[in-house]
Amino acid sequence: MTETPLPHFPRLVDHLIARLPTLPLDLSLKRFIGSLAERHPSLFSRLDDQAQKTFLIDPTDVSIAFVLKPDPAMPRLEAIKRAPDGTIVAARDARIAGPLAALVGMVHGALDGDALFFSRDIVIEGDTEAVLALRNAVDDAEIDLAEEVAAVTGPASKFVAEIFRRAAPLAERMTGVTLTRAGGTLP
Amino acid sequence: MNLAAALVRPELVCPAGTPAALRTAVEAGADAVYCGFRDETNARNFPGLNFSPQELTDSIRFAHDHGSKVLVAINTFPRAGAERLWQEAVAKAEGAGADAVILADLGLVAHAAAKHPKLRLHLSVQAAASNPDVIRFWAETFGIRRVVLPRVLSVPEIAAINAEIPCETEVFVFGGLCVMAEGRCSLSSHATGKSPNMNGVCSPPSHVLYKEEGEDLVAKLGGFTIDRTPKGVAAPYPTLCKGRFTAGDYAGHVFEDPVSLDAAQLIPPLIDAGVTAFKIEGRQRSRAYTQAVVAAFRKAIDDHMAGRPIAADMTRRLAEGQSTTAGAYKKTWR
Asked: Do B88 and B225 fall within a single domain?
């Protein structure tokens, strides 16, 4: 667990993200969440009835946020752009907000959610029970986002995974975001 | 005679809220891991946590393959008319290959001793057994092999207990600090109708609401505002015992400061006091916490056994309120 302050996502990269068209991003996210549901069924079953809740995942140093409904029958993940005043307008049961490095670090098991809450690096609002269920289910799933992105590329997945593996150290240094699962390869 | 040969090696008992956390704890150096079923039979009955019977069986196999034990906490108090759920949990734990079950309820302990005579029984901290007479009763009547001591005893008191009892003792060395009479605290019930003793949840998340008001973080429990944390101040868990209240001229943490127990520096005197096992709290925490804290205490114990000094402040960032205390072990409470 890092003792250093969390990094701010690079503004130049964020400017590029802000200019991405929403439609292709949403199509990519749709494939991503469908693949995730197939590859990690226990993540969704562990959520139990909290899977019907809608979560706003809000990386506060990035121009887009994500709306997630982890319903195993019809999982939904959509991007939503930040308004000029910095707010995100989206219907949700709960909001989890913080620097991208904190949110991705939690997904990868590199950072502890409670410690980030104690230090006020992340903020949760709304349905606390749903947030805890999601945090616990994601932690148990031992997700590696690079592996998940590679998985949706089908036949090219091994090639894409290798590119991610080689690029990850430099990208982590540039962005401060933990881009791979803590602890390395699963047993 | 060298130092290591003269010392009895204590067991490091570590938390796991999920199968992934259990694997993390084992790989980080846990001698034993404790966990519970995904229902109200265990005192960490939080959403998204805990083990199905199949997950427990698979996890125990993993732990045993790596030389670690698994202790199953069935440490809430059965509801009248629903005792069967708790009794079945004991049978499932034994069937899954658990090395011991951790129980709190007198009736359930009697049931386990009678129906599962080969199963090793530990007495949960929830039973609040804090003097030699009561511990001898549990050990001599039901064959309890280990007692988890409440976090209200000093090191000399623990030594005095160990001198008079026929079983092992286990003490908490890190994590959330509960200073109430454990197993008997009903503060959470007053605000939510649910308690750790009966439902496995202190401040159930279904009754917790956070809201940012200006630069303050406001925490509500069951509709009652129990804390308002200013910007720049570490946030606590939303428990009544660690809330901020006004009493007379005093405004602040009336019952308890939001700090975590860290007794790493007390490992040597606790070993001298006859303690068999050191327990880390935090089944509700992530595998990042598990890895960091278990590795830190593995190192602390190994360093002490090898005659090296124990490093200080290894895990402060992970602590509630981001500060730590030696708690009752040093008896410096206000």
From this structure: no
Place of tokens 């708790």: B86
State the Cα–Cα distance between residues B97 and B57, nearest whole angstrom: 7
pTM summary value: 0.91
Decide if B213 is inside a domain: yes
Q: Are residues B167 and B241 in the same domain?
A: no
> Which member of A50, A119, A123 has the closest CB to residue B47?
A50
- Is the residue at B334 inside a domain? no
Residue after which a domain boundary falls, among B204, B227, B252:
B252
B286 touches chain A (CB under 8 A): yes
B322 CB neighbours in chain A (<8 A) are 115, 118-119
* CB-based contact B132:B161 (threshold 8 Å): yes
Q: Which domains does chain A have, with CATH numbers?
A: 11-143 (3.30.1050.10)
- Distance (Å, whole) CA B205 – CA A118: 16
Please check whether residues B218 and B292 belong to one and the same domain. no
Same domain, B41 and B109: yes
Chain B CB contacts of A109 under 8 Å are 20, 24, 286-288, 291
| In-domain check, residue B245 | yes
| Residue B207 backbone dihedrals phi, psi, to 5 degrees | -110, 5
CB-CB neighbours of B25 under 10 Å: 30
Which residue range(s) make up the domain with B224?
187-252
Residue B159 lies in a domain: yes
Number of domains in chain B: 2
Nearest to A112 among B20, B234, B318 (CB): B318
* Number of helices followed by number of strands (H, E) in chain A: 8, 5
ipTM for the complex shown: 0.90
Question: Is B150 found in the same domain as B87?
Answer: yes
Per-residue pLDDT of chain B (334 residues; tens, 9 = 90+): 444 445 689 999 999 999 999 999 999 999 999 999 999 999 889 999 999 999 999 999 999 999 999 999 999 999 999 999 999 999 999 999 999 999 999 999 999 999 999 999 999 999 999 999 999 999 999 999 999 999 889 999 999 999 999 999 999 999 888 767 777 888 888 889 988 888 878 889 999 999 888 889 999 999 999 999 888 888 888 898 888 888 899 988 888 888 888 999 999 999 999 999 999 999 999 999 999 999 999 999 999 999 999 987 767 667 766 677 877 787 665 4
Instruction: Determine how many CB atoms are found less than 10 A away from the CB of residue B202.
Output: 26
- CA distances to A21, A24, A34, A78 from A28, in Å: 12, 6, 10, 9
Q: A78 CA to chain B: closest CA distance, Å?
A: 23
Which residues of A are less than 8 Å from B205 in CB distance? 128-129, 131-132
On whether both B265 and B234 belong to a single domain, the answer is no
Question: Which one of B252, B273, B289 terminates a domain?
Answer: B252
Facing A132 at nearest CB: one of B205, B317, B322: B205
CB pairs A-B closer than 8 Å:
119
